[in-house]
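User: Please predict the structure of the protein below. I'd like the answer in structure-token form so I can feed it into my own downstream comparison script.

Assistant: Understood. Taking the following sequence of 374 residues as input:
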Amino acid sequence: MDSISNFPFNNLPTELACRILRYSAQATFDQTDRYQVKSPYSSARTLCLVSKDVRRIVLPELLHTILLPKSENLNRFVDALRMQEEYAEIQKQNDLRLERGEEQIPNDLYFQYAPHIHKIWIGCIHDKIVPNPLLQSDYTSARKLTISVLTPVLLAAPSIALGSTSLKLFSECLEHAWKSRADTNANDEHSPPPWKTQALTLSGETVANGPWELLTNTPQGSAFFSSISHLAYGSHTTTFNYSFFVAMSHGRSRDYDLPLWMKSILWPSFKNLQTFSMAYPHIKPPFDIYDFNQFREGRKGRSFHVELLTLSAAMLTRGRDDARDWRISAFAEIGPGEECIRTEEVRLKVSHFPIEFWYDFDDWEKIWACGLCG
């Protein structure tokens, strides 16, 4: 044992050492602890402090999936992006110095974030995207600067998740990207849109009406929606609809009510949409309602598999006036890792592994971070 515990890490082949570091830096999104108690990024952050070389190896793992649930998280992320812009300027100077044969300026912290970010979650941040707004001499300029720094990184992510109160922020980012595209004369009909996002996830209780209009009433918002291929939605009340759990405690199978806001959406505007998904805890009837109430009251966490209900875009774009059309009836019983395909338009799949739920708004964030939204 002593020979193993004392084995020098730097004696390993470089490729093997890098693999070990990358594996150790992976975020623990499926952890049982709440994220506010233990950060899923804690291992990666610790490894970043080891050395500049280790930092460059593990940063891609830390950046792969970014969670910004609150305003302070977003503000710190924007601060980090601003620092990288400063480092990028130093890098440009170093490139010129290299051409002239001059000594370069130390710039070990420079790292391009955007190419490594695949998923970004922005929670319910309301409108607090500028830290200490009362101390800002020009709040409008400070806000515009925040938007300009955030936009290229946010819209480069293939998958974006938005809380209902962050839609205003997102609409400003779309507007900034749209105007920048026009300024560069790259706005003809054959040029690609100024974003790479293909999957959009929405969360929260007030998605309908006002927040949607921030996007649907603008050319950039309409263009963005028409480019999305996968849409997912989740909310605390939808995930844990108590009336269904009461019925299930008596042995009734679970039906799936689709949210009311779906009736008001102009689905044909999602021209490239392929699927729509919602996730729920996988609970089989009958079960102990008393035990479930203990869970609802926040006295303890509970481990559940996740079931993903997926509907085809063709199903949503058809006229659906009958109230029964907005309820998906119960599926045959399936277990972990199994999928029930009712038709080409409706399917249900249960995750291979369970996650710890705490009956709060962070549950949907964890489902998304674990990649269980489709």
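That's the full token string. The first helix runs from residue 2 to 5.
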